[in-house]
Amino acid sequence: MPQTLFTRSQNAFLTAKTLMPGGVNSPVRACKALGMSPLVVEKASGSFIFDLDEKGYIDYCMSWGAIILGHADPLINKALNDQMNKGSSYGALCEQEIKLAKTLVTHIPHLEKIRFVSSGTEATMSALRLARGYTGKSKIIKFAGNYHGHHDALLKESGSFLGEASLPCSLGVSQGFIQDTLVLPYNDPHAFEALAPLQNEIAACIFEPVCGNMGVVLPTFEFLQALCNFCKAYQILIIVDEVMTGFRTNFCGAAKDFSIEGDLYCYGKIIGGGLPSAFFGGKAHIMDHLAPEGGVFQAGTLSGNPLAMSAGLAVTSSMLEPDFYKRLQQKADRLLEPIEEAILSEDLNCTLNRYGSMFTVFFGLDSVTSYSDVKKQDQTRFNEFYKFLFEKGVYLSPSAYEANFMSMAHSDEDLDYTKDIIIEGLIRF
Ligand SMILES: *Cc1c(COP(=O)(O)O)cnc(C)c1O
């Protein structure tokens, strides 16, 4: 029998598959749609991530956008080391929570009160419960291609919200869980008209102000205006899901860039500094409906965890430095402007969507504004392009439906090398 030689990473993945479903603890990490063995990580530092075979990659996944300073950032590491010696979890109010809450409420004008949780999923799930508790209404609106975490009520994709044909997008989600979830197409300002028969039963509308979870898709002004007008007219709470976009282009989020006035805001990813942490917040008179002040129950053993709070304080102090976002934007422009030029001048039959230091390339399309556009992309070309970059030591987020991210640790050298490889890949495939 011919002997196949597996790398250490491939062997580790084979072992992992015998122990964990698909070998992973979050499905996209398995790289199934890409048809390749996934990255198995040994360590990461700055802009680089290393596999078990000691091969380094310039990382543009950056833990799905959670890492904005770079891996193993010295400031975060110091904060974590200091906190470790004082204990890793208390299950009681601690000063670190108060300090971080103070920083956030002081610098983000639309937040009067916040609550810390441990994941973006928890933040959006709790914000929706709060919206229902506050309004006394039950239905919620979400948009096709927007992702808000894996809780049952939001695992519904189908556009036919009024018909019986709407299906959950996961097994195990029964009709009861999704019957109050109305799904509309993203970026369609006329979509709200169809909701007329239900408009007084809707508690909240949750959306990604800039989509990142179907790849980067920017909102149109008309869509945002229609969304806000509809919600204001029927006392529907606007929940801005900034779990990915929060702290990405400024200290607040996309709501600031697009002048969106929401009622509740959800944050996650970056604020944990690489630890499991997230929060939601808004006006005090709404937030005070949460227990123990009000009747909406919400709780968590590790919420406001002192390690996560310390990492959050370190990352926020960096992000509040003057010029932080200007420097990050310069990095994004250095990488992406030449790619945009090449796409146009060489007629490469693809499109680059970008927002600050986030970007996605869609193959075979010259504009992408909705989930139905995203689904028309050429997955085969993407897969070949992806593997080529991977071989050349450039690690993009491993899916055609995801955003890529830059961090403060990406050097000019990293960016210039990546630009050359991406352009070469786009020309080849
Ligand atoms: C990642 C993400 C979530 C879910 O956060 P988890 O920490 O993975 O639970 C929710 N909303 C948006 C917009 C996200 O990008």
What are the segments in which pLDDT stays under 50 over at least 5 consecutive residues? 158-165
Range of helix content: 25-40%
CATH overall fold name of the largest domain: Aspartate Aminotransferase, domain 2
Strand order of the largest sheet: 4-10-9-8-7-5-6
C-alpha Rg, in Å? Answer: 22 Å
Q: Would you tell me the overall average pLDDT? A: 95
Main pleated sheet:
7 strands, mixed
Number of helices: 14
**CATH architecture of the largest domain, please?**
3-Layer(aba) Sandwich
| Class computed from helices, strands and strand pairing | alpha/beta
Number of strand segments: 14
Measured between the Cα atoms of the first and last residue, the distance is: 35 Å
- How many domains? The number is 2
Indicate the proportion of strand residues.
5-15%
- The string of secondary-structure elements, in order, is HEEEHHHEHEHEEHEHEEHHHEEHHEEH
Task: Determine and state the CATH class of the largest domain.
Answer: Alpha Beta
CATH superfamily of the largest domain: Type I PLP-dependent aspartate aminotransferase-like (Major domain)
Bound molecules: pyridoxal-5'-phosphate
The rough form would be described as: globular
